Amino acid sequence: MKNKQSSPSNNEEEKLESKLFDLSRVSHTRAGGKKLRFRAVIIVGNKKGKVGLGVASGLDVAQAIEKATFQAKKNLIEVPIVEGTIPHEVSAKFGPAKVLLKPQRKNRGLVAGGTVRVICQLAGIKDISSKILSKTSNKLNNARATILALKKLKIKKQK
């Protein structure tokens, strides 16, 4: 029985699409000198309502990407999608980053900039309008604010 239950989760993992969102070289100074590492930001989604964000650093690029992908798969969230868009308007703040997401009519497309666009595409949202309300251009904070906004979404139960 365990094999039958574990295979759907394996199939889900295979269907997840990942995108390298940001890759940066970070260093900190120690007594022996500067220590270089790489930080990777990965976004994964199945284009059917699940999306996750992972951030990790490693000694080389491959290690950082592998660790970030693992984190993103671990941090998957469920996004309620109604007719290709979100159920209601929502905003969120993470650090200095503020994001506003609005539902759109059918066939209007993704009216969203860089960070929000990538996350919404991987989540499977087809029609949405968004605005980054803060002055920060930090990709990671904007991504985390978008994920936070998507977490706030609730769907009304019909009686």
Summarize the entry for a quick read.
The protein has 159 residues and is of the alpha+beta class.
Number of strands: 8
Q: Which H/E pattern describes the elements? A: HEEEHEEEEHEH
What is the architecture of the largest domain at the second tier of CATH? 2-Layer Sandwich
Overall mean confidence score, pLDDT: 86
Q: What name does the CATH topology of the largest domain carry?
A: Double Stranded RNA Binding Domain
Largest sheet: 4 strands, antiparallel
Quaternary class: single chain
Q: Residue ranges: pLDDT <50 for 5 or more in a row?
A: 1-8
Give the strand order, joined by hyphens, for the main sheet: 1-2-3-4
Q: Indicate the overall shape.
A: elongated
Beta-strand share of residues = 35-45%
Helix content: 25-40%
- Structural class of the helix and strand makeup? alpha+beta
Tally of separate domains: 2
N→C terminal distance: 36 Å
CATH class of the largest domain, named Alpha Beta
Treating each run of at least 4 consecutive H or I residues as one helix, how many helices? 4
Report Rg.
Answer: 17 Å
Any overview of this molecule?
This protein has two domains: 2-77, Double Stranded RNA Binding Domain (2-Layer Sandwich), CATH 3.30.160.20; 79-152, Ribosomal Protein S5, domain 2 (2-Layer Sandwich), CATH 3.30.230. The radius of gyration is 17 Å and the shape is elongated. Residues 1-8 have low confidence and may be disordered. The strands form two sheets. A four-stranded antiparallel beta sheet has the order 1-2-3-4, with helices on both faces. Strands 5-6-8-7 form a four-stranded mixed beta sheet. The longest helix is centred in the first third of the chain and has 14 residues, at 2-15. A hairpin with a 2-residue loop joins strand 1 (17-30) and strand 2. With 159 residues, it is α+β, with helices and mostly antiparallel strands. It is built from four helices and eight strands; from the N terminus they run αβββαββββαβα. It has helices at 2-15, 61-74, 114-123, 139-152; strands spanning 17-30, 33-45, 50-58, 77-78, 90-94, 97-103, 110-111, 128-132.
